[in-house]
UniProtKB/TrEMBL annotation:
Protein's organism: Panthera leo (Lion)
Signal sequence, renumbered to the chain: 1-20
The protein's name: Podocan like 1
Keyword Transferase: no
PROSITE patterns: LRR (PS51450)
Amino acid sequence: MRLSLLLLLLLLPGPPPTPGMEDAAFPHLGESSQPPPRACPLRCSCPRADTVDCNGLDLQVFPDNITRAAQHLSLQNNQLQELPYNELSRLSSLRTLNLHNNLISSEGLPDEAFESLTQLQHIYVAHNKLSVAPQFLPRSLRVADLAANQVTEIFPLTFGEKPALRSVYLHNNQLSNAGLPPDAFHGSEAVVILSLSSNRLSYLPPSLPPSLERLHLQNNLISKVPRGALSRQTHLRELYLQHNQLTDSGLDATTFSKLHHLEYLDLSHNRLASVPAGLPRTLAVLHLGRNRIRRVEAARLRGARGLRYLLLQHNQLGATGLPAGALRPLRGLHTLHLYGNGLDRVPLALPRRLRALVLPHNHVTTLGARDLAGTPGLAELNLAYNRLVSARVHRRAFRPLRALRSLDLAGNLLTRLPGGLPGGLHTLRLQRNQLRALEPEPLAGLDQLRELSLAHNRLRVGDIGPGTWHELQALQVLDLSHNELSFVPPDLPEALEELHLQGNRIGHVGPEAFLGTPRLRALFLRANRLHMTSIAPDAFLGLLHLSVVDTAGNPEQVLVRLPPTTPRQPRAGSPR
């Protein structure tokens, strides 16, 4: 009888039956073909049987109807204030619990909240309102993130006795040394990352995990590293101690000597007056910027023979703080930063293999013929914003630097281009000097130069000698902005793609202005003296790649006519 009724329904005219109607009418017919729907909390999503995602729903109450089979529960970006023990204790299969960015306080987190979560591996409670850490977290834990709370205290079993624990994040809290028990990590011998930055620690905590590879302690109040505090951390590779209150008396010769795998050490923004002693030979990067260092002694660097990057910017070295040969032990040094130290000359006897020398904002006035001869491998030299004058730059000063690719002489007092520039240069920066003339000779042979900046000088078109650009066959970017040019300079390099002429006195652009630059893509003419018809109708004829023409800031809106083959895109200062 039932089968006859079903056949009759299927044969009747009209819309087909609703999917599942047969099962609704006859439950026993559909039991084996369709599984029952999975339970999922209202408004949440459950993309898999073991995953519940309630992210960003402005929830104020812990959701009910979470399946006991859930292994991954996401509740971040809500407004939860508490975790009910009865609801949480049901979820014994949880492996990941994400509570990031809620309003959970310590009062809303019962001490026994995590006791039944014996399989929990990842817990994220960052950006909440915890004042103390949970007293107990599961032994199975691998990652714990309690950053950006108001935590003042952790307990022995918060992170202790966790043999699988790998990463702990406690930065941006209010922890003092009194809030860290001496056995905070007892029994957790696998922790490789510990972040305690931006707290209120006054000395480096003792009894840190010996397995550590990365330790963040920046932005604290640390004035001392107690003797032996780092003696067990022999696997440490990265140590961040910047923005503290360390002085020479807060360190000793053994502080770093046992760190046989240390590669990165940041001590910048402290109060050190000298380079620390006992640096390990594995060290590759040493950041000592913004301290009070007055002198660098070779003896302090002798142990760090593997150093590749030494950053000493914004110290107080002055004219005598870096004596000849002080850096000689660092035979493999690649980069030396000496920004803002009051140096009056390029340091002598630098490591021969040095590749980058960064010396801006010092008081260097002179470059002799042999000052750079000891570093023939330099690829980058930055002498910007010193006090160099043309008369004191020897014509052979740069000649030994055959590997030089980038030279920055911006912000000096040069009145002419230096001679003897290496033919392999790719970038030459001479902006903000006092250049009044350009001649072909200093630029001769620079057939690999790609970028030349001459902005903010005193150049006029009549002072640019014939043939000045002739050998710059690879030049792609030329910046002549903020000079005294009255029209577009002639005979520009054919390879040019970007031309900056803003802030000059240009009042007319003729039809022949860009005949020799067919690859031009961007042209900047803003803040000149152009009027509506100042640009000849066929000035851009043949510039098939031109995509930017900036003529804003002129006395009148400039009419820009582009050839039909050029892509029609809105351009600043051109009609739309």
